[in-house]
């Protein structure tokens, strides 16, 4: 075992100690300090650069990958390639990855500012202009295929701006410019791949999100007849800040009730079915979670049977969808197969699941969109790979007998991982409604 992996395992044990399984609402999530997060993320980065990157560059048949971006206009892959304390691309940053085969991967920075111990700085500003230095680095290594981030399909593989590409073509000249090729699937592959150390910790990240939902859907936060859905939404947002977490979208809380209400900012009443959608970012990993709660009426001790059965239908659709996850299948193929089985099962279903990882709506295959249940061109044609994570997002609609046959929508979203062992929910899933007394 390498020194770096031993270090990461020790850090992982630290996380396991600080983040107990969060099963009770009485427990407060323990969050690592920024300095501790720095140690975790940077050790993961070392492993990724040494193992994941060479594998993917060879898979995509590139012996060089060039990532160029400017401060505040960073390439979507940039922050996944640099240490935790990197806040911006600092003026103009050029990263060069060169596969030397058995000699290992060269990681070079053509930048005025250093990038920790991760990259060898090769530019001496007092001796050579920056673009000339980049050209020198490339031509000295004489790569056969050079990957650059431009894509008509994937935003994550389209980070090279038009003006920077023009400069790159000019300094390389016709011979080396002819060796430039889109590295969009390299960029997507890099972003989507999770290493074992990340997968070991991901359950604790998702558990924090689950715990926040448990806290929000409680009488400590919700007083029927007084609290509004917006009150709960903003409480969740403030809770993120209290826990020193960031969020990649504003949390939402909505309701359904007998004789429908379209007022999402309305007062929460007894008998309401509540829904939330939240996503946190922690240790550079993102979550995306949707769950439901029921507010008991006076005299009730549990949710109506029809609502509990509706949740089971949502769980059934989850099972159908993840059952169609097969390595090499496209997102569109998974969508079609799952919807076919859902229809055969009598479910009124909609599937709109997406990759999860360094981003919320992350790199990888799109499995349906809420407004496209047939075929998602481009992103839906990308194939499913092992060691990737997804937000299993979907809904079913059913008629609730207790509400006079009124249609209710059960919208669920739980985070899952796809490995050679199959698909599993990262920190379980909701199988029972949260009950607010």
From TrEMBL:
Peptidase M24 domain residues: 207-405
Any one Pfam family match given in the protein's UniProt record, by short name: Peptidase_M24
InterPro entries per the UniProt record, alphabetical: Creatinase/aminopeptidase-like, Pept_M24
SUPFAM superfamilies registered for this protein in UniProt: Creatinase/aminopeptidase
Protein name as it appears in the record: Peptidase M24 domain-containing protein
Source organism of the structure: marine sediment metagenome
